[in-house]
Specification:
The chain is of the alpha/beta class and about 375 residues long. The protein has helices spanning about 15-25, 40-60, 75-85, 105-115, 130-140, 160-170, 245-260, 260-280, 310-315, 335-340, 345-350, 360-385; strands at about 5, 65-70, 95-100, 120, 145, 175-180, 195-200, 210-215, 285, 300-305, 320, 350-355. The protein folds into 2 domains: about 5-10 and about 260-385, Aspartate Aminotransferase, domain 1, CATH 3.90.1150.10; about 15-260, Type I PLP-dependent aspartate aminotransferase-like (Major domain) (Aspartate Aminotransferase, domain 2), CATH 3.40.640. Helix 4 (about 105-115) links the parallel strand 3 and strand 4 (about 120).
Length: about 375
């Protein structure tokens, strides 16, 4: 919308024009079903999906045969967690995850608890990071899966994925990571995990397209399919492939991978510009300081005594989140920030400002101005009523 400064890229990104152009032919002119093996339209659609599979695999440093196309990370996470739980139930019924995970991961585990599985929810420190010693101590002989996200959607904290991988592998436990916020922003090597999920609309691709990585060897990972049907995706995810979405995801992954280093440098520069100026305002605190490993374009900042909901109402020309996109409308304190030790009041005073590919310096400056106006107005009202 004209006049709106968009700083909610962690919730969703606009589709890159280059991605849109790659998708357009597959809506009308090339409308075949990839499963139609008897004619040219079906062959063309299948070839386009396989090219996209190669592009996504390259972005994840994986093999094309390890990529399963899904509707997004929520489906992928459910397919991975529930699929492993059912397939490996004879080995054990204990799973480990983290209190600050996305709701898709947490609620998938809670669904399994209702079926008799046991889940350990590990805490995080004040910056949202998992303690590796706590993870090691939580693993048991009957543990079958560890689920730890690559980067947090609210705080921006990057988890010690390599350490998690080493611990899980040494104990013969499968490792699933939600890399939704990491893919396209920082290097992601799927081989550190046994299963990995991501969504295209987080890196300038379309909504409704995602990928699930399933390791093929050392060890070969098997999952019970979440969906039954025609046995698409080698029996791992039935359903007619979303050809335009998959083509768009492949193109978006290719662009994000090629431009990642330039993206990182520009985001860090804009992030420093934004944070340095906002921290000059009264009551401003970064929940995750700059010395902590974090995403190069995500700022979790709170203003003591000013609710995030009030900020959203006051800054109508600024699009951002007070917490995660999934929970900001609930009125409840963010479960991620509460897990980090923030009080309910502090959590409700937090803003998530996430920059992206199309953010400009002018937009950063306008953001600072709008937030400054709101903070000053609240402070002046407080003084006047004292």
């Amino acid at each position: 919308m004209k006049g709106i400064v968009y700083l909610d890229y962690n919730a969703s990104t606009p589709v890159d024009e280059r991605v849109l152009q790659a998708m357009l032919p597959w809506f009308c002119g090339q409308y075949g079903n990839p499963s139609s093996k008897g004619h040219a339209l079906g062959w063309a659609a299948e070839e386009a999906c396989e090219q996209a599979r190669e592009q996504v695999a390259a972005a994840l440093s994986a093999e094309p045969g390890e990529i399963v196309f899904t509707s997004g990370a929520t489906e992928g996470a459910n397919a991975a967690i529930k699929g492993v739980a059912e397939m490996y139930a004879s080995k054990g019924r204990h799973l480990v995850t983290v209190q600050a995970e996305h709701r898709a991961v947490l609620n998938a585990h809670r669904a399994l608890e209702r079926k008799g599985y046991e889940v350990t929810y590990l805490p995080v420190d004040a910056y949202g990071q998992l303690d590796l010693d706590a993870l090691e101590h939580a693993l048991r002989d009957d543990t079958i899966l560890v689920s730890v996200m690559w980067a947090n959607n609210e705080a921006g904290t990057i988890q010690p994925v390599e350490g998690v991988s080493e611990i899980a592998r040494s104990r013969g436990v499968l490792f699933m990571t939600d890399a939704t916020q990491a893919v396209g922003k920082i290097p992601v090597h799927a081989g550190l995990a046994d299963l990995l999920v991501c969504s295209a609309h987080k890196f300038y691709g379309p909504k409704g397209a995602g990928a699930l990585y399933v390791r093929r060897r050392d060890p070969r990972v098997r999952i019970t399919p979440l969906l039954d049907g025609g046995g698409h995706e080698n029996g791992r995810r039935s359903g007619t492939l979303n050809v335009p979405g998959i083509v768009g995801m492949g193109k978006a992954a290719e662009i994000a991978c090629r431009e990642m280093e330039d993206f990182r440098k520009r985001m860090e520069r804009l992030q420093n510009r934004l944070e340095s100026r906002l921290l000059e305002l009264p009551g401003a605190h970064l929940n995750v300081p700059q010395h902590v490993p974090r995403l190069p374009q995500t700022s979790s900042i709170r203003f003591e005594g000013i609710g995030g909901a009030h900020m959203i109402t006051a800054c109508r020309n600024l699009a951002f989140s007070a917490g995660s996109a999934c929970s900001s409308g609930s009125g409840e304190p963010s479960h991620v920030l509460r897990a980090m030790g923030l009080s309910s009041e502090q959590a409700l005073s937090t803003l998530r400002l996430s920059l992206g590919r199309f953010t400009t310096e002018d937009e950063v400056d306008r953001t600072v101005y709008l937030i400054e106006q709101c903070v000053c107005s609240v402070k002046q009202t407080a003084v006047a009523s004292a």
